């Protein structure tokens, strides 16, 4: 099945509002007359979402948030809900990034509640999974990723608006990219897991991004693998021409 590649720039905790607007404008300029045959978006920090969203309104990039809470509102100091980011102009949200899991204690159960809430509110979800170096070296990559996928999707009736991002933790921000074969093997396993849960058609249609030190120099090779449908880009998304080159490699 032909799936449309999807590329997202995760800006993480970088850039003020003014800097975000500057980078978003530079990316749009680098993309020139736009692109066709793939989808691409950027995920600025929360304070920059609304203004950046206004800049993106005329296309071609969509706006994503990096996280959201699983309740609509309430006494959750420092948190932002799905309907708030939706109101700020987001169409997509990244959930369960390994930095959220490792640094902010997000468990599989919390990730699942967030996925469920975000989908219910009408957001498109990018669910992140991936093993640590220790887990890979212990030979349990498949078990870890399968557990994260199953737990993340527990109780979710349909996955039409969902993308999964496979991000081996050892490849994030380290300059160490998984080889395209290593990534392909895990992507195929994720697809099989989703097919087992939701049926072959849903599995075939699911888009699975790769993330972890994607650069203009390795993007095309990764995206050429049969089960890799684009990328979730960290460091390289902070450089307009690098990010635009990665988007073009996916189109
Ligand atoms: O969300 C993006 C990933 O964490 C990848 O980050 P990176 O491209 O800097 O390795």
Describe what this molecule looks like in 3D.
- Homodimer.
- Keywords: Cytoplasm, Gluconeogenesis, Glycolysis, Isomerase.
- The active site is at residues 97, 167.
- With 251 residues, the chain is an alpha/beta fold.
- The chain has one domain: Aldolase class I (TIM Barrel, Alpha-Beta Barrel).
- It is built from 11 helices and 8 strands.
- It has helices at 17-31, 46-56, 82-87, 98-103, 108-121, 133-137, 141-152, 180-198, 200-205, 216-223, 240-250, and strands spanning 5-10, 38-43, 62-65, 92-95, 124-129, 162-166, 207-211, 230-233.
- An 8-stranded parallel beta barrel has the order 1-2-3-4-5-6-7-8, surrounded by 6 helices.
- The structure holds glyceraldehyde-3-phosphate.
- Glyceraldehyde-3-phosphate (G3H) binds next to β8.
Percent of sequence in beta strands: 15-25%
Ligands: glyceraldehyde-3-phosphate
Overall pLDDT level: 96
Strand order, largest beta sheet: 1-2-3-4-5-6-7-8
At CATH's second level, what is the architecture? Alpha-Beta Barrel
CATH T-level fold name:
TIM Barrel
The helix tally amounts to: 11
How far apart, in Å, are the first and last alpha carbons? 16 Å
**Rg computed from alpha carbons, rounded to a whole number of angstroms:** 17 Å
> SSE order, as H and E?
EHEHEHEHHEHHEHHEHEH
Which superfamily, in CATH terms, is the homologous superfamily?
Answer: Aldolase class I
Principal-axis shape equals globular
């Amino acid at each position: 099945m032909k799936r449309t590649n999807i590329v997202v720039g995760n800006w993480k905790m970088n850039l003020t509002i003014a800097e975000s607007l500057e980078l978003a404008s530079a990316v749009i300029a680098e993309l020139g007359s736009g692109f066709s045959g793939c989808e691409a978006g950027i995920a600025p920090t929360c304070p920059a979402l609304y203004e950046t969203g206004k800049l993106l309104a005329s296309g071609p990039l969509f706006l994503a948030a990096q996280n959201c809470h699983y309740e609509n509102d309430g006494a959750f100091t420092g948190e932002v809900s799905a309907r708030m980011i939706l109101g700020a102009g987001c169409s997509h949200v990244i959930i369960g990034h390994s930095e959220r899991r490792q640094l902010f204690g997000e468990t599989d159960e919390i990730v699942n509640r967030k996925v469920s809430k975000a989908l219910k509110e009408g957001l498109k979800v990018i669910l992140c999974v991936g093993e640590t170096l220790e887990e890979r070296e212990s030979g349990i990559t498949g078990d870890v990723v399968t557990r994260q996928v199953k737990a993340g999707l527990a109780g979710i009736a349909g996955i039409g608006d969902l993308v999964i991002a496979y991000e081996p933790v050892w490849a994030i921000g380290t300059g160490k990219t998984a080889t395209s074969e290593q990534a392909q093997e895990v992507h195929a396993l994720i697809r099989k897991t989703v097919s087992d849960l939701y049926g072959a058609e849903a599995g075939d249609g699911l888009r699975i991004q790769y993330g972890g030190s994607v650069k203009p120099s390795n993007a095309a090779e990764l995206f050429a693998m049969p089960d890799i449908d684009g990328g979730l880009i960290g460091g390289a998304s902070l450089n307009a021409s690098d990010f635009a080159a990665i988007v073009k490699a996916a189109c």
